[in-house]
Amino acid sequence: MDRIEEIFKIKDVKPTAVRIVVLRYLLEQKKAQSLKDIEVGLDQSDRSSIFRTLKTFEDHKVIHSIEDGSGMTKYAVCVEGCNCDPEDLHYHFYCTSCEMTFCLLDHPIPLVNLPNNFKMAQANMVIKGLCDKCNQ
Amino acid sequence: MDRIEEIFKIKDVKPTAVRIVVLRYLLEQKKAQSLKDIEVGLDQSDRSSIFRTLKTFEDHKVIHSIEDGSGMTKYAVCVEGCNCDPEDLHYHFYCTSCEMTFCLLDHPIPLVNLPNNFKMAQANMVIKGLCDKCNQ
DNA sequence: AGCGATAGTGCAACCCGATTGCAAAGGTTA
DNA sequence: TAACCTTTGCAATCGGGTTGCACTATCGCT
Fold first, then answer.
1. Distance between CA atoms of B23 and B8, rounded to whole angstroms?
2. What is the residue range of A43's domain?
3. Which residues participate in Zn(2+) binding (chains A, B) (predicted)?
4. Distance between CA atoms of B46 and A14, rounded to whole angstroms?
């Protein structure tokens, strides 16, 4: 059983044509992908089908969504054991000049203790400014 | 000289009709306001005029913008001595159920040391999940 | 004050990512 | 096979943000 089938089984998602190609595509990428990225990467597959697939994946914790300051939600496959907890996440730096996003991998997100009975589902930490190339 | 005139003078912004009402409105609010909030609060003033006013204010550091997870950029008047530095900011909690935003005031944003020559301009730290009322 | 230049305003239109309605296609179950 | 539910593709819509353009107010100079 290959990785994709396995994921669908574990996360209780019915494998369909669109779901298989979207998941395969996401697994191949090094960076989180936007809806548009996926649409283009899959050679103009239907946007709304991909969109709904992503929602399904998110509901079943196959992927998690990230807001990295670019204005477009990005998606990445959850790594094994990922509970989409803050420990699994990291800061992003968004350059407002060249519009590139950088993962600040060596800066884990600190634990924030929330008020009583608040429940964290995800965390998006974005720093905006100028990257080294644009900051001349 | 009242507070509004003073701010315009210090921040080098020409006081105009729209700018005066927008700044007065923002000063009256306890929470950061979205473009829509302001439009409605000012009884349907023209959106694009308000929009451009906000951009002008931002350029002149009269206000700073905040992304709090709601999907709408919000604006708040800079407090005296605010350099829009991360020290002046705080985490936000966005409840995905009731769509309310909470300021986590007692959690200052930690200093993140960026890669060489990167320059921070703003930081938006958003935690999403369920607030105490929705987490039953 | 008068006049040309510059800046600000209001309206309408547009952009673009996200989302939805709906009908056709595909799968499942009895 | 027939009835049913799910998924898919297309087109349309939504909504926040942004821009083009003409009109108006303000400024700087004489």
1. 9
2. 3-129
3. 95, 98, 131, 134
4. 49
| Residue B26 is assigned to a structural domain of this protein | yes
Provide the CATH number for the domain around residue A57. 1.10.10.10
Sorted by sequence, the CB contacts under 8 Å of residue A33 that are 6+ apart come out as A25, A26, A41, A74, A75, A76
Number of independent structural domains in chain B: 1
Entry pTM: 0.90
Residue B81 included in any domain: yes
Structural domain includes residue B35: yes
Give strand C nucleotides closer than 7 A to any protein Cβ. 7-13, 17-21
Instruction: List the pLDDT tens digit at each of the 136 positions of chain A.
Output: 689 999 999 999 999 999 999 999 999 999 999 999 999 999 989 999 999 999 999 999 999 999 999 999 999 998 776 666 655 678 899 999 999 999 988 777 777 889 999 999 889 999 999 999 999 8
Binding residues of A: 95, 98, 131, 134
| Distance from residue A39's CA to nucleotide D2's C1', rounded to whole Å | 37
Contact A117 B104 (CB under 8 A): no
Please check whether residue B49 lies inside any domain of the structure: yes
Predicted pLDDT at A133: 93
Q: Name the binding residues of B for Zn(2+).
A: 95, 98, 131, 134
Read off the amino acid at residue A83.
Answer: N
